Amino acid sequence: MGKVSGYLCFLVRCSISSLSCQDDTMKTDRFKGEVLMTLRGIFLLREKIGDSIFADMKRNWLEEPVQYVKGVGPKRSLVLAKLGIRTVGDFLYHFPRRYEDRSRIIPIKDVRIGEVQVVSGKVLARGVKKTWKGINILRVAIDDGTGIIYAAWFNQPYLEKQFPVGSKVILSGKVDIYKDIQIVNPAYEVLGDEQEVLEAGCIVPIYPLTKDINQRQMRKIYRSAIDRFSPCIAEFLPYSIRKRHKLVNLPLALRKIHFPEAESDWNDARKRLIFDEFFLLQLALARRKHGRLEKQGIRHVSGGRLFEKFKEMLPFPLTGAQLRVVEEIRNDMAKPRPMTRLVQGEVGSGKTIVAIGASLTAVESGYQTALMVPTEILAGQHFLTIQKLLLPLGLRINLLMSSLSQKMREETMKEIENGESHITIGTHALLEEKVRFPRLGLVVVDEQHKFGVKQRETLRKKGLESTDLLMMSATPIPRSLAMTVYGDLDISTIDELPPGRKEIHTYLVSEEERSAVYDFIREEVTLGRQAYIVYPLIEESATLHLKAAAKMAEYLKMNVFPEFRIGLLHGQMKEKEEVMQSFKEREIDILISTTVIEVGVDVPNASVMVVENAERFGLAQLHQMRGRIGRGDYESFCILVGEPGSEEARKRLEVLTQTSDGFQIAEEDLELRGPGEFFGTRQHGMPELKLANIADDMKLLEIAREEAFSILSQDPGLDEPGHRNLKMLLKEKSLI
Q: Could you tell me if 141 and 126 are in contact, meaning their C-beta atoms sit under 8 angstroms apart?
């Protein structure tokens, strides 16, 4: 096979060298015939042995170390490694962060004051002047033949050597007048030889850089790399998809993303490369889902008697959404494949009841359930709630946490291992190797984004077979994230709140209104209500000027609310459960807390929540904390105290004052903060999105998902000839 590949390479080189010949023989029929025969030989061989060798030839080029690219070398390859660039392929997929349209260079005499302009000219003079305040100002005079403009930099005298007199430069920045026409702190580039000067009249890519390499050097290397290696890119996207969605071929897309000649070039290239990112992601998700469907799972057979008895015992009716989601889960559990389902719903929508419904299905089928939650406070609360609700059914409910005494832990683990425990509620302690379930049939993970993929799978593998997995999230998931981060899951949505939930009035106030906020808290507590005051930190930080919970608890107790009982709660305390229980039993009037109350704390008598430094939190997190109030019979109020540093930050917080729709808030949060901020991490093993934005490029995401799932449904193994390159690429990226 190696000899064949070598022969093919020889034929390709012969053809290319012949076609690039500038001799007059190109006009002769004999030469044309030789080229056609050579190409025909290539295509006959290609047809005989398939595309895979050609793809290998192309891909091998891209796996070459970047040091072999012209202009790089061993020393500069170490510099590029700091940017994550180690191979030719890495280099080609290191995209510009923006572009500078130097095709619209403005004559200096025509520059418009107050606008960002691009000018080019020769350096007439330069010099550094020190003001009476000790500020060093570097001024460089630029002349283009139509006028003179000055570039100025403050306290950067070392830049002077960058501008030799007589050298040609390009400046980009906002034009102002201060005695003379000038641009302060402009983006600049000193042009070299005549070939590089030609870049002054085109659209120029601006790359993310690191120390010891500049834009001019990067562009010079890219020119060489694109010319040499873009033809070596193997096209992996089937022609039918490219034609259907008007996508340019991959080599052209890579050439145009780096060196667009017009805005349309950039748009075409970006569309193709974004589609690729989404398509590969969706294909990986489709394969993951398909692989799960092929596994043998537990087939829960349940008549639903336990669940029906449970419903009859409840002092309230279930909502239509709860009943629908329970039915979706039970149908899934009855199938002979492992269930992997995500239930999402607002804070207070009744996800715990849904989890109980799923657990009763497992119990009635003779299996155990493990419910894992992120905090001991939430674990204790779930234990008390579920134990109370299921006690009449005679089920054994256990609680397993690290803070339990050694004796209690051992007794609990023994009951689990003996199969006496029907439902075990716990924290990360459930993941310990010593915890063994003889018949684990269902794993429920509450606040699932607080856990990693490996943690969920560790608990799931404690089952005898492919255990069913039910994940729950009180953070509504935007549709775009549902198709990416959770694109391989089945998703159920509880889109209805139980009747009787009180409206929560939300206000955004400034630091100056603090005394009024304290007066309002005093009024509510005097009426018998309770209040939360939430801070972003436990202790004061030397670098962040933020109020801290521990110090403020002492201050409020001594100086603001001496007549009330003040409590402190944060994640590092050992007595968290005792503090929370005291608050629930009204032994604490005002609870000073960090975001530990974000998850699962339920105190119906609390009617006020004040969030300090609200600008430090995401919208979804604020909405979830807000859901801790409004759970009783009283009108409730959420007060966001902060000093948003920009109009955009203020508008972001004002979203909470305008809507209580968690899904709308989640969409806003995603658009403003991005998916990485929204959930903190991306899915393990999923390809990275470099150009694509799941909020802005939703239409392409939908198309890519449809095409990916369609291909896999028709050709699960990607064995058809037209899918071979695609399969090879997925293997290279470790996606299969």
A: yes
